[in-house]
Write a structure and sequence with these properties.
The structure is a single chain. A hairpin with a 6-residue loop joins strand 5 and strand 6. The chain is mainly β. It folds into two domains: about 40 residues, N-terminal domain of TfIIb (Single Sheet); about 60 residues, Roll (SH3 type barrels). Helices cover about 10% and strands about 30% of the residues. Belongs to the YjdM family.
Length: about 110
């Protein structure tokens, strides 16, 4: 029997205790049916209220300073193949790669779906 990865930290070392599944790395506990319900609740929307999904293309709607650099991601920059990161503690819920800049995280409130 294969147990699912932890929905919080994606750890593969989950174990079962009675009817609960437990992650030893982040101490998250859940019932298998609850995970599917909580995943459905996590909806990430862009600046215009459109629902985003993994693989979407988005456009930056505001100049964004890059932390630790003097560079800026300009308005209108197109970002392809985004990956959503639900439960991001710092609010940066999009992982992406921007041409000329590299891999970075963005907040969904600063992008619009193409």
């Amino acid at each position: 029997m294969s147990l699912p990865n932890c929905p919080k930290c994606q750890s593969e070392y989950t174990y079962q205790d009675g009817d609960l599944l437990i992650c030893p790395e982040c101490s998250y506990e859940w019932k298998e049916g609850e995970v599917q319900a909580s995943e459905a609740e996590e909806i990430i929307k862009d600046a215009n209220g459109n629902v985003l999904a993994d693989g979407d293309s988005v456009t930056v709607v505001k100049d964004l300073k890059i932390k630790g650099s003097s560079s800026v991601v300009k308005v209108g920059t197109k970002v392809k193949s985004i990956r959503l990161v639900p439960d991001a503690s710092d609010g940066h819920n999009i992982d992406c790669k921007i041409d000329g800049v590299g891999a970075m995280k963005l907040k969904s409130e600063f992008v619009k779906k193409v």
